[in-house]
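Q: Start with the shorter request: fold the first protein.
A: Done. Sequence, then structure:
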Amino acid sequence: MYWILAIMAAIAASLIALVVGGLVTPADYRAVRRIRLQRRAPELYALLGDVAAYEQWTPSPTTIVRQPSTRAEVIVLRVTDDDTKSMLQWEWQVDADVTHSAAHSVVTLTELGRVGNPVIRFFAALRGHGGNAERTLRALAEHCDEFGVSVERI
């Protein structure tokens, strides 16, 4: 009889730990990822600036709206995942890769998001944020016919 109470107490303690862990974890996050592609910077900047073309290469169905940016070299987008209804902000920056040649570029994606649910926030913090940014950068590389490109965490 007491073993049932012990199991129920352990389950309740685990749930409380998840909620408290999520409440002490920051809701806002910032993930920065970077890849190097064998394309010229203006070509990639034009591709990333064409919001209508994102549905051809993004890994999951999303609604994307371009936002005004204070810096001319940065493309700011508000992204809503159509499946989960989560909202993110993407900031794309494309620079010429001077270490290789003018035909190479460095693409940096900064993902800003907020996780409201404390339990999901706890697991997301354990797993690490930025998975969406990494998938998107890999999809961009595949769209540019480059496969096996490594994604750097910054």
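Q: Next, the second protein, separately.
A: Sequence, then structure:
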Amino acid sequence: MGGMNAPFFKTLRDALTGSPDWAALDRGWRESEGLREALEKQLPPPMIEQVLQIRRSDPAQGIRGSQVTVVTTTASAAAKIRLTLADWPNELRREGWGIQSVRVLAQRIQDIAHPDKVRPNRAPIPAVVKQGFAQLSSEVSSEPLRAALSRISRRGKAL
């Protein structure tokens, strides 16, 4: 059965390896791996563990040159790595990378909370308390305080 599928996979491999899109992906992957290896020469292993991603970005036009972006797990790791890599662009240029600058960022972690947990449920305000706030709002001379007490007295369902 393996022999029957072999021609299909051979033509699929030939189609993928001959595709310009595949070539661009492969080149990007190899470049990323090379940058990762170069980064590992510059940083101690505990710092390497804090690196989530490394990528190169080239400007569409202009003279600024390429930039390497290193994405880390935390802002403190980003600060330490930024200091450690201060001279890294010079090293990369000596190795033939043509990199002009290094940018180190902390990954923004978004904690997506359940909608019920975003705002804690408030216990209903007892009717007696609401009446007290309403009465107090009519007796207070401060307009902002009067408005706040009035809003509280109208809030939610009465018990």
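Q: Describe the second briefly.
A: The mean pLDDT is 80. Strands lie at 51-57, 66-72, 99-106.
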